[in-house]
Structure formats: structure tokens, C-alpha cells
Amino acid sequence: MSENNLLTIEMLLAMDCFKKAKVVCGLKGTQRIVKWAHVLEVNKVEALINGGELILTTGIGWAEKPHIGAKLLDELIENQASGLCVELNTYVEKIPEEMVEIAEENNFPIIVFKNQVRFIDITKKIYDQLYFPGENLTFQQRLIQWWNNPSTAVMSDISTKPMHPGVASLYLIHPNETVPNFCILGKELGLNIIFTNLASTTGVFLLVSDLNDEIHTLRKRLDKLFNSLPSLVLIGQKMHNMNEVAQSINTLKETNKIYHSLIKKRTLHYDELFIEKLVEPLIRENKLSTLIEEHLFPLIKYDQENDSNLLNTLDTYLSHQCNKQETANALFIVRQTLYHRLDKINKLLKTDFTSSYDRLSLEIALWSFRNIIDKGKINNHLKNN
């Protein structure tokens, strides 16, 4: 099976036969690869699966014995099944808590159908999509595939329209929000939009192309479109044409990582990010605490022990280009008090924070401390060192 034909649980959820299904746990595992679909109504897996199967069941074997269902789930995970689909209200009313806990711990998706479904139809459709993807995959499924693996993105797979400039975007929809009609909203602004839900990110992935072929006005129209909506939006790097779709998706995914690492803003454009791009790898590699510790630890510790605000003083001073009068005004203190604080900061940091190199290092550390989400984690690290 080629890389372009890989099928994930997230892609299956975009199929018509899964429209009324719901992922009740293990949402983070919806990017698991599905190699086959298999109906299994026994209580022991043993050698019945090869790995990569999406298991379909009514739960008849464990309906009244949750501990047996939990044991079966452990075996499915151990034998590398992709996920579990359960038909409710035939034998099982709901998924037992014990099974939910196991699934969450292992990022193993459990999908439920609230009404009776024809497993034979589901298995056939999965078979068709596995072996004849060109004829059976919908454009929504292609979009999901591209999100998971941008290198597979080929616009001719989903569109025969001319390739105009555009951008990949992610709309972070509220849990109870109805997905906006992006097609209609976009056309009013000269934008062609195709989109799909992403179960793994609880967002809506959009590919926007500019019908007006005016890349210099694209940003303005995008802002007008997304500012009219209630939820947050992330925007990747603009494409000069749709042949650059993979790059736009990659930068969008990077923007998504930055968004979940840093203080959240209303809208994030990849092209506007600078310090965020520098800092995000440090967060991902757990090195941001070290950066802050090396440059700011004496001030943070002093403020904690003396209920002072030297860190804020330094931040304000640097943000006002080291202008003492403007800094004093911004802090609502007299200049003499500011002189005293700056002298104390100098002694604690033992560095010339007005030099260009030291100032740049301090400003990046200050920006990071100000904008990261989990300050408690940083503070605990500093207290223990």
C-alpha cells in the first residue's frame, strides 16, 4: 500500500456511514492507520487479527460483564488493532468507564453508533477505499490525508479548477458550534474554500484559493472572513499557486504547535511569527526553562522572596527602549525609585542589559516568560534549582 493510499480512522470518520458515529474516547489516536476492518464478537483476540484492523462489534460478549470488555480491549491494544467501533442499544447501552480509561491512557479510539448499522456495508466501503482510493476517497478524506502527511498533497486529486494563490487555514471551532458555511462566506469575498473536520485537532481544516487571483489583497479578505466568526483561526504561509500546498500545510501545522504552546491570540498568521518560531522548538524539547533560568532566575527568585516587581521593571524598561522617564511614567513611580531598581537589577543579573547582545537575550527570555501558557511549570522548575 503506497503512502498516498494510507487510510486513517480520522479519514474514515469523514465517510457517510460514519456521519452519525461519535468518538467517545481515545481522540488523540484517530490518526492511527487502518489496514482492514473486521467484525469480532468473541471475548478473546488471540491470533484472530494481524494488527491495523478497525474492529466492529455489538458488544454481545461483554455487555453485562464490563471486566471482560476491559480485558478484550487490552488484548486489542496489545495486538495493535487500530480502533474499536461499538453498536449501542442492541446489547450495550454505553461504554463502561473501565474501558474508557484504558482507551484514553493508550490513545485508542472507541467509536460508537447509537443505532443499528450494517457492518457489512461499512467493511465493504473500507475495503473499496483501501484498494481503490482514486475512485472512492472523497475530497474531505484527501484533505485529512494531507493534514496528516502534507507531502502527499496533489491538488489534481480533488480539483480540476485553475490553481490560484491561496493559503491553508485551521478554524478552531467551539465544541457546540455549527460549522460555518465557508463556501458561501468565501464566495462573497472572491475566495474558493474546501474544508473538512479534523477529529484529532477538534478543528476545521480549510484550503482557500483566491478566485480574483490577487495575492496582495488576500490577507485583507482573509481577515474579513475570519473576524466575522466566533472562534479562533490559524493561517499558514500564503501560496503563490496551489502547487505550494504542502508548504502552506506544513507552516500551518507549525503555527498550530506555536498556538498550543504560547498565550493564545485571536488570529495567528504564520508570516507574522518570528520570536514564536524561535521559541517553539525550545518548548517542544523542554529547553525553555533553561533559557529563562539562565537569564532571569535571579530576578524571578528575588521577586518571589521579596514580593517585588523587578522582572516587570526590566521588561518595561527594555520595551521603552531604555528611556528612563517613559519607563517611570509607565510604572507610575518617580525616577529615583527607577534608578534604585535598575541598580538592583544590574547587581542581580551581573550583566550589561543595555548592550545589544545582552539585551536581545533578555528580551527573548522575557517575551518567552510573558507568553508561555504553563508558567506554573516554569516556576516549579526554578524553585527546584
UniProtKB/TrEMBL annotation:
Pfam families: HTH_30 (PF13556), PucR (PF07905). InterPro entries: CdaR-like_regulators (IPR051448), PucR_C-HTH_dom (IPR025736), PucR_C-HTH_sf (IPR042070), PucR_dom (IPR012914). Residues 310-366 form the PucR C-terminal helix-turn-helix domain. Residues 12-130 form the Purine catabolism PurC-like domain. This is PucR family transcriptional regulator. It comes from Halobacillus naozhouensis.
